[in-house]
Structure formats: structure tokens, C-alpha cells
Write a structure and sequence with these properties.
The protein contains 5 helices and 7 strands, in the order βααβαβαβαβββ. By secondary structure, it is of the alpha+beta class. It has one domain: PurM-like C-terminal domain (Phosphoribosyl-aminoimidazole Synthetase, Chain A, domain 2, Alpha-Beta Complex), CATH 3.90.650.10. It has a 7-stranded mixed sheet. It is globular, with a radius of gyration of 17 Å. The model has no long low-confidence stretch (mean pLDDT 91).
Length: 204
């Protein structure tokens, strides 16, 4: 409705070049691939929540907004066997993994204790009853990589500011196609469904 925008609208366009020998597509995940997450999750969504509602925490929560072009270039220079690259923005890590599992017709298994999350963000999520897996990120990427190359790529991106907290959080399986399962810290298996509705108001 006219006059109901309540803010500033930004629009951008980008042009990229895909190097020879690179085939990155959400349909390309293969059983055996290892999954790299480039850093701590849920910081952007919680930072926006706290700013909007004037919430104060013991330590400030700052958005993870970051340029990822250098990190992506470093990864592609290190290995051409990167099958999928995605940014887990709206809907968070959980939604991104579900989309990839569905498009590639594979199962995905992740491990809760391998997923990096800042202590203050985790505490905020617990206070508000939010699941960090479904909260938006703005400066993270998820990569599905051939297992022979994953450790080398991980070690390389650890040298960079926006990859220093990167972790291998799971793998692709041929069990339970189109399903994401997380092994919890107490040893149980939890099915990670697609997000239903929105935990937070749309922020991007």
C-alpha cells in the first residue's frame, strides 16, 4: 500500500563468472560429500531482533554481514570438487539444507556439536524460544565438497577472517532421501524439517 513502506528499499544486481571446470548446483550433492559451514549461525537474525525491540544482552550481538567473494575464490582455487555452495539466509541453515536434500534427492546428516554458534546467541535463542537452525544469516556459506578435498579446503579458509570459525558439520548419505537428520548432543536423532511459518518477521 502507498505510504506503508516504513523504511528504505535497496536494490542491487550482480554479475559473476563461473571458472572453467566448476559445476556448482543445488542438485549436485552426492553421498559421501562433507558439509562445511563457514562460521557461527543465527547472529544476523538475533542482532536484528535485539535492535528492533531495544533488547540488551550482557555482550552485544552483532550481525554477521560479510562479503564472501574472497572466501569463495579461495575455496575454488583450492578444489574444483565443490559440488554445492549456498548462503543460508532466510529460513536459516535448516531451510538451506532441506532445499539441497530435496533438489539432490539425498539424505543429509549433521551433528549438533559441530555447528558453531556464539554463546550469547545461543542464550538469546533459549530465552526467546527460537531455534538457531532456522534463523537468518547474512555472512555465511555452506559448501558440499568431495571428502578427499574437504579437510584441505577447511584448513585453507581457517586462515581468513570470515572462515576462521568454519567447521565440517555433517555429510551427505544415500539414506532417507530428501531428509535432514541431526544427531543431538545427547545422542538422539532429530529430523530437521523445512521451516513452517516464520520465527522472526522478515528481515531481508
Amino acid at each position: 500500500d502507498k505510504g506503508k513502506g516504513d523504511g528504505i528499499y535497496l536494490n542491487t544486481s550482480g554479475i559473476g563468472i563461473i571458472p572453467d571446470g566448476v559445476n556448482i548446483n543445488p542438485k549436485n550433492a552426492k553421498p559421501g560429500d562433507l558439509i562445511i559451514l563457514s562460521g557461527k549461525i543465527a547472529e544476523h537474525g538475533i542482532a536484528i531482533l535485539s535492535a528492533r525491540d531495544g533488547l540488551e544482552f550482557e555482550s552485544e550481538i552483532v550481525s554477521d554481514l560479510a562479503p564472501l567473494n574472497t572466501l569463495v575464490s579461495v575455496m575454488l582455487n583450492e578444489s574444483k570438487n565443490i559440488h554445492v555452495l549456498r548462503d543460508p539466509t532466510r529460513g536459516g541453515l535448516a531451510s538451506t539444507l532441506n532445499e539441497i536434500a530435496t533438489q539432490s534427492n539425498v539424505g543429509i546428516r549433521i551433528y549438533e556439536d559441530k555447528i558453531p554458534i556464539a554463546g550469547n546467541v545461543k542464550a538469546a535463542c533459549e530465552i526467546f524460544g527460537l531455534d538457531p537452525l532456522y534463523i537468518a544469516n547474512e555472512g555465511k556459506l555452506v559448501a558440499f565438497i568431495d571428502p578427499e578435498n574437504a579437510e584441505r579446503v577447511l584448513n585453507k579458509i581457517h586462515l581468513y577472517e570470515f572462515g576462521k570459525d568454519a567447521s565440517i558439520i555433517g555429510e551427505v548419505t544415500d539414506n532417507n532421501p530428501k531428509t535432514v537428520v541431526m544427531k543431538t548432543t545427547i545422542g538422539t536423532n532429530r529430523i530437521i524439517d523445512m521451516i513452517s511459518g516464520e520465527q522472526l518477521p522478515r528481515i531481508c
